[in-house]
Amino acid sequence: MATGPHEYTPGDQEYPAQLTSLADMLQWAQNWARSKSVWPLGYGLACCAIEMIASASAPQYDLSRFGSEVFRSSPRQADLMIVAGTVSIKMGPRLRLLWEQMPEPKWVISMGQCANSGGEFYDSYYTVQGVDTIVPVDVYVPGCPPRPEAFIEGLLKLREKIAKQGLQVRSRKELESL
Fold first, then answer.
1. What pTM, to 2 d.p., does this model score?
2. CATH number of this structure's domain 36-177, picked from the four choices 3.90.700.10, 3.40.50.12280, 3.40.190.10, 1.10.10.60
């Protein structure tokens, strides 16, 4: 756990998992494999989608390092939905339908202020006040629009969350006693 900016490592902010049995080790191995090959479904609705495409295709950002270079066009082939942009009331049921068509396990990244909380359109009658009212969100990426670096940080945070899914996480006291 980083105590300051000088100790910060992207995607490594959580406490380590505690492996105490063979079942935990097998769960860790399965989670490790899942976290290294996340297949995204791009759901770009506004200007945040341009930043999402830039982070996927620009050589200086290169999502293929993280096993997520190909955005799937079918929800049945994806396990990560990236909601980028303003979600309107009319798009809500379609978003939910695509999320329901994704196979388990599935994760959601909310990208940009409009997807997170309605953004600058928060007082509009036709804007959803956060995509988390429609689908459960795992990682929020702030910004208007968020930079590709912020999106990559969100993806690293999701990979860390996937790697620890279903495992017991050590507490600060346990780490200090080691």
1. 0.80
2. 3.40.50.12280
